[in-house]
Design brief:
5 strands; Aminopeptidase; alpha+beta; five-stranded mixed beta sheet; binds coenzyme A
Amino acid sequence: MSGEISYTWRDPITDEELADLVRSHGGRAEAGWWDKAREHSLGWVGARAGDGVLVGFVNVAWDGADHAFLIDTKTRGSYQRRGIATAVVRLAAARARAAGCEWLHVDFEPHLRGFYFEACGFRSTEAGLIHLPSLA
Ligand SMILES: CC(C)(COP(=O)(O)OP(=O)(O)OC[C@H]1O[C@@H](n2cnc3c(N)ncnc32)[C@H](O)[C@@H]1OP(=O)(O)O)[C@@H](O)C(=O)NCCC(=O)NCCS
């Protein structure tokens, strides 16, 4: 379904490319964000169209041992609903496993339950969250 899309692990992606991808789906891009985040990452998956344009992305953070965390799954607005994010997450899971991780975590807004549970194969678990700016 994803045609000529190619998927890579840890291939270079520039800060500008990621900002453009974020804007493409209506997100608010922050210049310099990816340059800061990259060095803490286990790895990332990039999906590129035949012309080289970045159309999909996910970052994999980790604890240096057996827990990996998916962050910032994104598909270019005009390329959504073609299975790209599903393929991106599948490759990220395979590479996290190959790196020796045992568990892959993710959290998400309720409307993406079908994407993460049905399309990507995650299951429900107990998790917790604190909104830090709201702390007294
Ligand atoms: C969420 C997102 C990454 C999905 O990317 P995608 O490449 O379109 O996803 P896929 O084509 O692999 O979707 C597979 C299935 O997941 C579900 N799904 C995908 N996007 C969905 C959405 N926005 N709402 C509800 N279900 C969705 C559908 O069941 C879909 O299958 P279908 O197209 O046959 O109905 C993309 O919509 C996106 O970049 N959104 C903006 C950023 C964002 O919210 N990221 C999530 C951070 S947790």
